[in-house]
Amino acid sequence: MLEAALPTVGVTIRSIDDYVASKHYKVIKLHGSVGWGREVDPPVKNLPAVGDQRLVIELIERAADLRVTDRYHVVQQLPVVRLDAERPLVPAIAIPLRSKGAFECPGAHLKALHECLPEVRRILVVGWRATDAPFLKLLHDHGRQAIRGLVVAGGPGQAPEVINNLRKSLDRPGALLPTRGGFTDLILQHEADAFLATS
């Protein structure tokens, strides 16, 4: 959804670098994306002649021998299996676990996040339980401002857990409020507009 919406504010995503190239808008997906792939080494022999389904099987079978590189790419085809005839890819998306040990994100994106976090004053939480310890630590360690938050969690009855998790992780005062309903209500009732428009 983010990639589809970004052209309305003058940002078009064609490459991994485009996510953080704009002066005004940065899209940082710490746990990867369904349309991202990472190159692997060593290369697959005779790759142009290997079909996509066979390549998926070979990459899985050779997983212990492959080195996943830091070369991320935006790809259009699914499954994410190759950038072109010579470069195989593995999906660059984290498995959804309660505790993740590392981010699935390009280094340049993490650098942009570190640079932006000291200025963050608002956080809009949509469908996140605020249990991601590495991100909460980043938010805590790199922030300087009081953070106001709006939590979308299916309904106000589900938001208190998220709010409590955020409060425990942040040491800066700031209002953390639930929305009146779920994501559809957030958009239709213009709660997001009001929240983002306030200073």
Q: What does the model show?
A:
With 199 residues, the protein is of the alpha/beta class. It has 2 domains: 116 residues, no CATH class; 80 residues. The strands form 2 sheets. A 4-stranded antiparallel sheet has the order 2-1-4-3, covered by helices on one side. The protein has a 3-stranded parallel sheet with strand order 5-6-7, with helices on both faces. A hairpin with a 2-residue loop joins strand 3 and strand 4. The longest helix is centred in the C-terminal third of the chain and has 11 residues. It is elongated. 18% of the residues are buried. The mean pLDDT is 87.
Shape label: elongated
**Percent of residues in beta strands:** 15-25%
Give the tally of β-strands: 7
The number of helices is: 7
Q: H/E element string?
A: HEHEEEHEHEHEHH
The side-by-side strand order for the widest beta sheet comes to 2-1-4-3
- What does the average pLDDT come to? 87
Low-confidence stretches: none
Distance between the termini: 26 Å
In total, the number of domains comes to: 2
Biggest sheet layout: 4 strands, antiparallel
Estimate percent helicity.
Answer: 25-40%
- Structural class estimated from helices and strands: alpha/beta
Gyration radius, rounded? 19 Å
Blueprint of the fold:
Elements: H1 2-5, E1 32-41, H2 52-61, E2 67-74, E3 82-84, E4 87-93, H3 107-116, E5 122-126, H4 133-142, E6 148-152, H5 159-169, E7 176-178, H6 183-188, H7 191-197
Parallel strand pairs: 5-6, 6-7
Antiparallel strand pairs: 1-2, 1-4, 3-4
